[in-house]
Amino acid sequence: MVKIGEGSAEHDLIKKTLLEGLGTHAKDTRIVAIHKNSVSGSAGKARWLTFRIFSQAVAERRSGNANLRFAWFGASREEICQVISHGFSQCGETSNGQSHGVGISLSPAKFSIDR
């Protein structure tokens, strides 16, 4: 993980998007840090390359539009670390055994919280 420096264009865009999506809750929110995956290690690089190849294949089948979108994934710090280390393949059941359904729940980039 690499910390994105405050004041950088990338940091400001992510912060702005998150806070706008929180609506009235933004005023009570303090962002302490923003990190991004540095895609280090052979497994991480392989997953990134696989994603790029798959995206290109989808784009070719869809007249050049892979329809990629940004989204939020809400989870604990530990769960985020698991996703970064192993991908979303470990998602599905919580540590207490209760299921939240099959698949991954993402929030649209402009709606980081359901208002």
From TrEMBL:
UniProt cross-references to SUPFAM superfamilies, sorted A to Z: ADP-ribosylation (SSF56399)
InterPro entries registered for this protein in UniProt: Poly(ADP-ribose)pol_cat_dom, RCD1/SRO1-5
PARP catalytic domain ranges (all copies): 1-115
Record-annotated membrane-spanning stretches: none
PROSITE patterns referenced in this protein's UniProt entry, alphabetically: PARP_CATALYTIC
Domain of life: Eukaryota
Protein name: PARP catalytic domain-containing protein
